[in-house]
Amino acid sequence: MIPLGHLLRILYIGTRYRLDTTLAELLAQHWLKWFLPATYLPKPKKSSAVRLREALIKLGPIHVKFGQALSTRRDLLPIEFADELAKLQDRVPPFDAREAIALIESELDGDLGSLFATFDTEPLASASLAQVHGATIPDGSRVVVKVIRPDVEDSIVRDIHLLKSVSKLLEGISHIARRLHLVEVIEDYERTILGELDLELEARNTQQLRMNFAGSPLLYAPRVYMELTTKNVLVMERIDGIPISAVDELKEHGTNLQVLARRGVETFFTQVFTHNFFHADMHPGNIFVDVTNPEEPSYIAVDCAIIGRLTPEDQTFIARNIVAFFNRDFAEIARLHVESGWIPDHTNTEAFEKVIARLCEPLFQKPLSEISFGQFLLDLFTAARDFHMEVQPQLVLLQKTLLNIEGLGRQLDPDLDLWATAKPFMEEWMKARYGFLATIEATLERAPEMALELPLLPELVVTARRKLNRMDSAIRNHQLQLAELEEKNQKESKSRRFRQIIGLLVCVYAGVLVAGLLPENVVTTSTIVGATVGICGLVLLFSR
């Protein structure tokens, strides 16, 4: 059930900040505004971009994080909107420092003076879920103290509940929504964002990332002070770096932006395929640049609350698709999609291959500035509807990270040759994982187990065909049962829709009766009859 009060609050905020005009402007559908009641309110004084940012802040953390993700997509948004939404990265209005201090003292079980030599009451940054204060610990080390916002969890739970309700409603009436697995995606996002509220988890993720890149010129993760860290408070080393979004400042320091952009791609692929542990919240507010050596700049990553991992199967599937994409082997991409179950077995792979080729070919031999991966993914998804392609919820974080990487790369070096940077890395990874030496090594490693199974090999060969035939028969029976069940569900769905339509019409008729709008000779009993008819209509409307 959708929480009505919260829904009304969203509608109120949307009207107050005149998001109807913002929507019409973003969609370039100015005719839309004439069908929205808010259009006839006084014209707003602030720009659409400013009103959108302010509305997202008012709506709460879930909506702020949505704005953060949008801010990196400058190819999809007008510059004014991208610049304004970028302020959501670390310029959300802070909460009172006295509340932060009280929470720190409670969590760390001590007064502020004994815990820190100095503490800055003015926050360094304020984001949707937490804010950060500068401090020094008694040994003189400079640190930052991250504090979770008071009562933020209640707000998140309420918003997630609304999103779930809307998703279930959409899945109930739309096969496209069911194919998107909207409820699963929202539930996965719920686990992710609630995980962001656990600063002990973030601390452990930061330590792991720091260990993975120890001694690497690509990325640095700050030291964490676990003895000063709890679920709601995190203390870690204060880093000195330039925000990745401050491109003009990077240029002033003589930073080699081409090297920085290339290293960003290398860092991403290293995290995903070498470590299988990737920072999945790489928006500009979380990434800084160390320009100690401007010709060899490196990244500094903070806010490691959201970390992604892939199963070995997903990792291999993605790697093989990327290599096939680089080699323009569109038949292999189509085959892999069928093999992985992303599209049904009965799919016309030749037709799917032609669709992939049509969408992918224009991307080659182009600089990054001329490529919109957002538009490409949208086109691919639209085209794949005919092939019943399903979204994989477990890969949502990876897709989000890829979009962030594109946004960052576009700002740093519009002419970055993404293919030339990534292809050698992926080919080397595939060789190390599936090459001749890797096969020999895996065989030797499993040799004792293979030796134990060898005596059973003749029996397995003899019985394999009979077992396969039985499996084929079982699969055919299962498919017939599924077809019968689907036909039954379709009949029941049609019957339910018919009852609901009749119920709705009956309810409307009951309203007419209660209102006394029928001829005079019926008006005397209209209230009683209307109530009775209304109850019958509601039964029909909500019956299953």
Query: Major beta sheet, specifics?
Result: 5 strands, antiparallel
In percent, how helical is the residue content? 55-70%
- Rounded to the nearest angstrom, the radius of gyration is 29 Å
What is the multimeric organization of the chains shown? single chain
Poorly predicted runs are 516-524
List the helices and strands and how they pair.
Elements: H1 4-16, H2 19-26, H3 48-59, H4 61-71, H5 79-86, H6 97-108, H7 112-115, E1 118-119, E2 125-126, E3 130-136, E4 142-148, H8 152-173, H9 175-179, H10 182-196, H11 199-212, E5 219-220, E6 233-237, E7 242-243, H12 247-252, H13 257-275, E8 278-279, E9 287-290, E10 298-301, E11 307-308, H14 312-326, H15 330-340, H16 349-360, H17 373-384, H18 396-412, H19 418-434, H20 436-445, H21 447-453, H22 457-515, H23 520-523, H24 526-542
Parallel strand pairs: 5-10
Antiparallel strand pairs: 1-3, 2-3, 3-4, 4-6, 7-9, 8-11, 9-10
Would you write up a description of this structure?
This protein has 544 residues and is α+β, with helices and mostly antiparallel strands. The chain has helices at 4-16, 19-26, 48-59, 61-71, 79-86, 97-108, 112-115, 152-173, 175-179, 182-196, 199-212, 247-252, 257-275, 312-326, 330-340, 349-360, 373-384, 396-412, 418-434, 436-445, 447-453, 457-515, 520-523, 526-542, and strands at 118-119, 125-126, 130-136, 142-148, 219-220, 233-237, 242-243, 278-279, 287-290, 298-301, 307-308. The strands form three sheets. Strands 1, 2, 3, 4 and 6 form a five-stranded antiparallel β-sheet that branches. Strands 5-10-9-7 form a four-stranded mixed β-sheet. The longest helix has 59 residues, at 457-515. The protein is globular, with a radius of gyration of 29 Å.
